[in-house]
Amino acid sequence: MGKDRLFLASCRYCHIPVTIATRFGPEELETLLTHVRSCKPTTRLPEPPGIEGVLKHFEVRRTEERE
Ligand SMILES: [Zn+2]
Q1: What is the CA(36)–ligand 1 centre distance, in A?
Q2: CA atoms within 13 A on the CB side of 57
Q3: Quick one: which of 34, 43, 52, 67 is 20 to 30 A from 59 by CA?
Q4: pTM for this one?
């Protein structure tokens, strides 16, 4: 269905764009987790940290890849 939709996740605390992906899978989850743990070590994350729990610490917006 046309262009790939990309999602950009930026950290809520430092506003750095951490990852961009068409979907957030295990690799993205790991990247986001690593970031939030070093950025905000006091953050309490659910155990196990699911993607939804982790994404609460990020602002996700949709972007489109240019053709
Ligand atoms: Zn951060």
Answers
A1: 6
A2: 28
A3: 67
A4: 0.84
